[in-house]
Every structure is written in C-alpha cells, then in structure tokens.
Amino acid sequence: SETLPPRTYFLASQNQSVSVAGDTSYYNQQAADALLERLGVSAPYLDSWTQNIRTWLARTIFQHLDKEIQMINKTLEQIGSAECKIGCVSTAVLSKISINKHEHMANIAKVLPYLEVSVNQEYLVHRIGELAAGSCLGCFRWESGGQYKNAPWNKELPTDSQIVAHCINTYLDSHLPRNPMYPEGRTFTTQYFVQTPNKADSKKREYALFQSSIHPPHFKVLVEDEVWEVSKGRNNLFHSLLLLLFHLRNEEHGMLGPVNLGPTGLNMLWIIGS
User: Fold this and answer.
1) Which of 141, 118, 154, 146 is nearest to 236 (CA)?
2) Mind listing the pLDDT tens digit for each residue in 183-210?
3) CA-based, 20 to 30 A from 222: which of 93, 117, 204, 228?
C-alpha cells in the first residue's frame, strides 16, 4: 500500500472552497463527491496526490522553464540584443530572433509555445519565475495571480490556473509525436483539451481535460460520454489533472495516445502512487 508523505504546504479540504459572487452554475459539488466515491479515491490519497502533482509541475515544468528563460536572456545580452530579452518583447519578435540568430538561439523555439498564454510577456515571465520558486508552486492562486508593477492582479492578466494549464498542455504537446493534422505542433492541446466556449461534446478523443469556465477558472474531465465533475476552488485544476491521470492509468494502460506515462516514458504515474 502507498505510504502517504508528510504534507509540506497548506491543503484546502474538499469542502473548503471560495464562493464566487454566489455563482454555483459552473460546478456540481454533489456530483464531484459521488465521482470520487465511485472511483474509490479517498480524501487522504487525493491530498497526497495533489502534493505530488504540485511538486512535479514545479520541478519538471516551471523550474526548467524559468532556467531556460534566464539562459536565453543571458545569451541575448552576450550577443548584443539585451533589449530583446524574453519578457521585454512579443513572441513574434522572439520568433524572428530565433530564425535570424538560430545558431545562438536554438532554445527559443522550445520556450515560445509556453509564452503564448498571455500577450503581457513582462508579467508572464515574472510570474513563471515566482511559480518556479520553492518546490510545490507555493504562491499559486487559482483565481488570480501575482502583483504586477506594484499593483494587484487584474483580469487583464492570466490566472495562475490558466498559466499552469497552458504549460502542462504545452509540455505534453512537446512529448506527443507531431501530427500532420496539427502543423503547429499542439497535438495534446488540439486533441485532449477543450476550452469554453467550445462544448464538452466537441472533444476529438474519448477523454480530455475540459475548462468549462475562465473566470473563475474551473476544469472538469471528459471520459467517453461522461463529464466528470470536480470540486471547485484552489485544487480544482490539480484534481482534474489527477483524475485524468487516474483514468489513463486504469483504463488506457498508462498510455496517453502512443506515449507511455510510466517509468519508461514520461514517468508521471508515480504522482498517483503507481
């Protein structure tokens, strides 16, 4: 049996959630509770898995991404293009730099897809650095983000949930084989992610991550003809990712399409105790 590790950050209980202007139309708590009971996922294990996925996201995606950005910016300074550092210019400008100075900037092309979640590159790069600090996305704020130019977060900026969802989608895009039907390389995002205003029944595969609300951010899991309801609040995105991973382990032999999620592949199944 799985040994539960000690918790290293505050975990909201399943029933602890923030009321958003009295709106309850975007989720169904009773259905979310019933789903966990049906799947046999207990609260202690869900809490443990939540810690695991936060740790995995911080170490595998955000710390690596932040390091890459810093290295690229250092190279840009060295070649006399400090004014074009990531966070100072648009992704379109960065794309041109990656082509014109390819011998120095080979890694820009790998980083660019992660930056497409917001036109405000200055805020995004700063927030990626904040999320990369520590070991488990300790500053994560599900329905908002960090300060920007000494001012509170506002809805013109992406929520942390949006940034995290985009980054894990992009990470999985980069590890799925390129499909000629999706020339931009977003194989996972196109096939396994559905975002409002698109409806749940627009999914292209038998399972998908579904963002049903932008403000407040809310995610669900689509499995065949079912919509798996997930508790709202600060852990909603994490729990949705975990339940999708749970389905892939139990029903898809630990495979995401042709990619193995076990130790011989992306090594993600440990997150849910496998």
Assistant:
1) 141
2) 788 999 999 999 999 999 888 889 999 9
3) 117
Q: Which of 228, 231, 225 is nearest to 245 (CA)?
A: 228
Environment class of residue 210 by beta-carbon count within 10 Å: exposed (0-12), middle (13-18) or buried (19+)?
Answer: buried
Beta bridge partners of 218: 213
Tell me the pTM. Answer: 0.90
The 8-class DSSP code of residue 58 comes to I
Question: What does the alpha-carbon distance between residue 32 and residue 259 come to, in Å, rounded to a whole number?
Answer: 28
Across-strand partners of 2? none
* Residue-level length of the chain: 274
Say how far apart CA 204 and CA 191 lie, in whole Å.
Answer: 5
Sign of the CA dihedral with 58 first, then 216, 220, and 29 last? positive
Residue 50's identity, in one-letter code, is: T
pLDDT digits 0-9 by tens, 46-75: 999 999 999 999 999 999 999 999 999 999
